[in-house]
TrEMBL record:
Species classification: Bacteria, Pseudomonadati, Pseudomonadota, Alphaproteobacteria, Rhodospirillales
InterPro entries according to UniProt: Tet_transcr_reg_TetR-rel_C_sf
Record organism: Nitrospirillum amazonense
Name of the protein described by the UniProt record: TetR family transcriptional regulator
Length: 66
């Protein structure tokens, strides 16, 4: 994560360990909570997400804006 921050890929306003924990936690939630995710998306009227879309959203949260 530190190398990704040094390269400008991951935002540097987060400690590298915290960025890794946040990314890992979001991926773990995505993998383990498909039933809850589908129920939440159904309530909001949003379409389901493919794995690739979910990962793209997670990376966007961690990615540097520059």
């Amino acid at each position: 994560m530190q190398r990704a921050q040094d390269a400008g890929f991951i935002r540097n306003d987060l400690p590298p360990g915290l960025a890794a924990i946040m990314g890992g936690a979001l991926v773990q939630f995505w993998l383990d909570s498909q039933l809850e995710i589908r129920a939440a998306l159904a309530i909001t009227g949003d379409e389901g997400l493919a794995d690739e879309d979910a990962i793209r959203h997670i990376v966007r949260l961690l990615r540097s804006q520059s």
